[in-house]
């Protein structure tokens, strides 16, 4: 487990706010995912070159992951190894730790657009805490890969295949 993981990274109130605000938009995840990538590439066009998958499919993958995380926020500790592995894979995708800040901005902007007035400053802060929890674990995994303390995942077409290859 990454040593810097803080099991109290999110308060129960923040967890509740994230879950309740995500519920009405969860079924629209592909569309929101697509808008998210449009915003991300607007913020940093250089990032578009890292992706092989079409934004529409990539958006679906990202938001299925966020959907899973939102539904299981109460079990953050059990989620850490899954998110850590996701971070190891991101090292192989050519993502730098700075890119996580751009990603956060794109995520919060997209959620703000989707939720409108429901996206109060309190809801925004709760989402920022949820994102920071994921990003912290992923960045740590990437640092470990860089320092040779853990193996990067080989880039493969499917994460399931990557698991099988290990
Ligand atoms: C909390 C943050 C993030 C989450 C939850 C996330 C989630 C995902 C997921 C679920 C995939 C599908 C493949 C896999 O499972 O390995 C993926 C792929 C990818 N992600 Fe992320 N990601 C995050 C941050 C970032 C950041 C900061 C970047 C930088 C631009 C990035 C760039 C990529 C790239 C390049 C791929 C490969 C997709 C392709 O080749 O088309 N991700 N991400």
**Attached small molecules:** protoporphyrin IX containing FE
CATH topology: Globin-like
Order of helix and strand elements from N to C terminus? HHHHHHH
Radius of gyration: 16 Å
CATH architectural type: Orthogonal Bundle
Tally the helices. 7
Identify the CATH homologous superfamily.
Globins
Main sheet characteristics: none
Structural class: mainly alpha
Which CATH top level class fits?
A: Mainly Alpha
3D shape: globular
Helix content: 55-70%
How many beta-strand elements? 0
Quickly count the domains: 1
Percent in strands: under 5%
Q: What low-confidence regions span 5 or more consecutive residues with pLDDT below 50? A: 156-166
Mean pLDDT across every amino acid position: 84
Distance between the termini: 18 Å
Describe this structure in words.
- The chain has 166 residues and is an all-alpha fold.
- It has one domain: Orthogonal Bundle (Globin-like), CATH 1.10.490.10.
- Helix content is 66%, strand content 0%.
- It has 7 helices and no strands.
- The chain has helices spanning 12-22, 29-43, 55-71, 76-92, 99-115, 121-146, 159-165.
- The radius of gyration is 16 Å and the shape is globular.
- It starts with 11 loop residues before the first helix and ends with a helix.
- The model is unreliable at 156-166 (pLDDT under 50).
- The structure holds protoporphyrin IX containing FE.
- The site of protoporphyrin IX containing FE has 22 residues, from helix 3, helix 4, helix 5 and helix 6.
